[in-house]
Structures are given as C-alpha cells and as structure tokens.
Amino acid sequence: MNNTGLKGRNALVTGASKGLGRAMAMALAQKGAHLVLVARDRTKLESVASEVVEAGGTADVFVADMTQEEQVQALESQVSGRVGKIQILINNAGTNLRKDITDFTLEEWRGVQDTNVTSVFLACRAFVPHMKGSGYGRIINMTSIMAHISLPQRTAYSSTKAALLGLTKALALELATQGITVNGISPGPVATEMNLPILQNPELNAQFIAKIPVGRWGRVEEIGALAAFLCSDDAGFITGTDILIDGGWCAM
Which residue out of 62, 127, 157, 249 is catalytically annotated? Predict the structure, then answer.
C-alpha cells in the first residue's frame, strides 16, 4: 500500500464485515487511511481487519448495532478514546426485505427504516462534530439505484433509499462551509454475497446479465475505488450529489 493520499485520516465504515463495506474499507486502506471497522459480528470484522493489516494497512474493530442510540453513543466514546477523531464516515450498514406492502408487519417496516435511515442519522449526529473545524470531512451514504427507480416488493427498501438521498442533499448544504462533503453512492447490480443465489444459477445469471447494458455484474472493487476517490482532496468540490454506478441500468 504505497498510495498515501488519505494518510493521517481515520475512516469509519459501518457494515464493514463483508461485501461493499469490506471492499470500501480495503480501498481506503490502500490510500493510507486508518480503518475503524464497525458491524455486529466481531469474528467477521476481525477477519477483515486481518486482511487490511496483511496488505500493509491498519485497522481497529468495534462492535455496535447502529440502529441503537445508546450503542452509537458508546461507539463514539470508544472510538474517541482509542483512535481519536473521525474524518471519514461511510454509512454502509443496510438491509432489504422484499414483500408486498400488505404482508409487512409494522415491526418489519420499522426495522428496514431504522437500519437504512435512522442508523445514518445516529452516526452523523455522533461523528459530524469530529469533522467540524478541521476544514476537511467526508461522509458517504450508500444509497441505491432503488432511490431512483424501483421494482415490485421494494416499498420498504426504496422508501428508505429515497429518504437517504434527501438526507444526503440536506446535510451537504448544512456542512458545505465546513469543508465537509456529503455524497451518495448508488450501486446497481454488484456481485456480492447477497446475490449468490443468482450468480450460482447459470440460467438466472444469464437472464440477469442480459438486463445490464454493459453485460456484466459490477465488481465490489469498483465501488471501493469510487468511495476512495470521493474521500480524496481531488473530490472536494463534489457534494450533495448521488453517483450511480450501475452499468447503465438507470439509463434505460
């Protein structure tokens, strides 16, 4: 890891134990950032931290449920004591539940809302003060192409991602004079663990790829590279926007 563009920056990534969270953490580590890895599964987090260290980076692990106010408050205190101030916050923790709206219980509906939106509010409220007054800060919210288009049985998920897009824009304006940028990344079809049932079924996989204009799945490393760029000094004039990385899906 010889690219030091983020050296001296502490980057907190939620949902860092797998998938896109892991990929973004690795990409930021390659740029020299110190990683603060957060999720609910300590074993998986420690595995990611080991990968970071083996590649020449540094990382700390913290276990927290980002939907719980008291746990986020405790996380902020623990991070401050062990690591110091956070300059980069990537709100990646999320969930999806596919159902007809009439089949949702209120508890299920609120669970998706809390994981995808309330957790971002709690994280930003806790860690934005770390960034203020320094002239630099980066917040990335993982939105989705489902904030722009949708599909059946996505009422809970799409509503949260559209809400997160609104939060991103408003917070970007709120923090613009502080040198803190706030942006969304909207991934399309990406080859992650969540999509293994399709990836491992040749017929379904071929049908799915036929719907993607570029003719392939996205790679998690491509999401990581975009996140790393948005955290760089070169991206200081990009704020309040959402970047689609979807192989052309939303252009159709």
Answer: 157
